[in-house]
Amino acid sequence: MNDIVDVLIIGAGASGAAVAWSLAETKMRIVCLEQGEWMKPGSYPSTRRDYEARSDGQFAISPNQRKRDTDYPINEDNSAIKVTNFNAVGGGTVLFGAHTPRFHPSDFRVKSLDGIADDWPINYDTLAPFYDINDRVMGVSGLAGDPAYPPKPQVMPPLPLGQSTMALGRGFNKLGWHWWPSDAAIASVEYEGRAPCINLGQCGSGCAQGAKGSTDITYWPLAIRAGVELRTRARVREITLGPDGMANGVVYYDADGVERFQAAHIVIMACNGIGTPRILLNSMSARFPNGLANSSDQVGRNLMFHPYVAIFGYFDDELDGERGPANSYWSHEFYETDLSRGFVRGFCYEFRRGAATASTAITGVANGGIPWGGGHHDAFRRRHRRGTGLGAICEDLPKAHNRVTLDPVLKDIHGIPAPRIDYTLSENSRRMIDFSVARGIDILKAAGARDIEFDAPLANGGWHLMGTARMGKDPATSVVNEWGRSHDVKNLFIVDGSLFVTSAGVNPTPTIQALALYVADQIKQRLANLFD
Ligand SMILES: Cc1cc2nc3c(=O)[nH]c(=O)nc-3n(C[C@H](O)[C@H](O)[C@H](O)COP(=O)(O)OP(=O)(O)OC[C@H]3O[C@@H](n4cnc5c(N)ncnc54)[C@H](O)[C@@H]3O)c2cc1C
Ligand code: SF4
């Protein structure tokens, strides 16, 4: 079982699945180690009547709240934004909202265009063919012709509008601002054996219908059929280094907690923007006393979340409530830099649905919108199934002091140090947040909403984890080169969100997966001289 393998992938989430699938055609011996398990869709909260309560326990988005033994704790006391993730086959895509926008071409050139941060060493055209492949494998619905993007193929027709989107769309139309059906990894029609979306509205705690393209039902079955071996409940502690300075394998704990060694010719990290720097920093050796591949001291730095804004209002007519995919329309009206707004770069709006019944009651009581005593039921009725709103995804800029390090005290159940997050919001983000709230209120008012409320930034909104092992041409300022290979260790690759040079103002997963496919393609093309 533990003979040397050709390729060892750590992490079976969005990027690990994509890189495994792409490399499978080489017929190399490929093994993926994943600390979590296969999920059983029949156990997802949406299959039971008490789904709201259940989605807050074992399916909570915060690992510190969820506390499955497949999770690891995170010290986020010194962070304005808390991390959310999921540790299983499929990784974060088990819980993700499946909103799958691409980056804009400008996102790869912010230094040239805006004089900030850095340009990426690759551009939109480099990734375009891999975005296309990823859209097909993940199964993306949408509508061709969005003026916010260069032309791109469409895989499935868009998801239906619903009452909430129609209400918000009326506001955008009045103001003359851009809105369009989102690209969403949700089947709008039968697709590759997947049933279409039936509007359960529980994408955020696992789609029992199988309409949402989490990678456990998209890439993984294909990769396994092509010969990739996926070992679950296998938690990697560290990557080991041979006397030649090359990675020679990993130490991991198996399902029984037994320490094992797996030798490999190539190691690929796909543990996300927190998990990857954690394992690199924990892989110390005489040659790399500050962590593997970290001669630049860049591992763990430049952590980017997207500061998230929620703006919500209530309407007189009944809308969708929580029914329907959470985010299936978007606006890119404020995406590109306009310095008259007081900040660089921008954000997109996601159109939301409403809250479910218990959440409507709990939030309303907590924020004073639903009083106790006289008027209680009336106030509840004026809100229940009558609310909807927008989420703004604000571009975050890379800052060296926003970082992941190893916590000196906190450990997971295997004794591996937990990551510690230090993160503060920049002045640019604060201004962007304020602007996105103000325009969001304009839109909701134009749509006819009353009782408008907002939350900015969302404290539990750290679902996009980026930048902590960034790519670049200069080994002094980046961790991997322009095709994902470590500058320091020539058989070590990274394919997850850690690679990001900047964060853009859209959800990152299609870009993470396009990067993973692009790195796999580079590996395939260079197999003869991969380690030169
Ligand atoms: C609630 C929620 C909603 C989201 N909504 C969206 C959305 O609408 N659109 C979007 O684009 N993105 C969304 N995201 C983000 C999306 O899930 C991530 O961007 C994506 O999953 C990241 O891919 P990744 O491959 O970098 O890491 P992940 O998918 O997080 O995969 C990493 C995997 O590595 C494993 N791992 C980590 N450490 C180890 C170790 N030491 N040993 C073995 N295995 C390990 C983990 O268990 C995990 O399975 C959402 C996330 C959450 C939590
Ligand atoms: S809304 Fe659609 S995609 Fe989301 S959980 Fe329900 S069926 Fe699945």
Tell me the layout of helices and strands.
Layout: E1 5-10, H1 14-24, E2 30-33, H2 51-54, H3 63-66, E3 75-79, H4 110-114, H5 124-138, H6 162-175, E4 180-181, H7 219-225, E5 229-231, E6 235-241, E7 247-253, E8 259-269, H8 272-281, E9 308-314, E10 329-331, E11 347-351, H9 357-366, H10 376-383, E12 387-394, E13 403-411, E14 417-423, H11 427-447, E15 450-455, E16 492-494, H12 509-525
Parallel strand pairs: 1-2, 1-8, 2-5, 3-14, 8-16
Antiparallel strand pairs: 4-10, 6-7, 7-8, 9-12, 9-15, 10-11, 11-12, 13-14
The structure holds flavin-adenine dinucleotide and iron/sulfur cluster.
Flavin-adenine dinucleotide binds near residues 88, 463 and 512.
Description:
Helices cover 24% and strands 17% of the residues. Strand 7 and strand 8 (259-269) form a beta hairpin. It has 12 helices and 16 strands. The chain has 532 residues and is α/β, with parallel strands linked by helices. Strands 1, 2, 5, 6, 7, 8 and 16 form a 7-stranded mixed β-sheet that branches. A 6-stranded antiparallel β-sheet has the order 4-10-11-12-9-15. It has helices at 14-24, 51-54, 63-66, 110-114, 124-138, 162-175, 219-225, 272-281, 357-366, 376-383, 427-447, 509-525; strands spanning 5-10, 30-33, 75-79, 180-181, 229-231, 235-241, 247-253, 259-269, 308-314, 329-331, 347-351, 387-394, 403-411, 417-423, 450-455, 492-494. The radius of gyration is 22 Å and the shape is globular. Bound molecules: flavin-adenine dinucleotide and iron/sulfur cluster. Residues 10-16, 33-36, 61, 84-88, 91-93, 95-100, 204, 235-236, 270-272, 275, 279, 327, 463-464, 496-497, 507-509, 512 line the site of flavin-adenine dinucleotide.
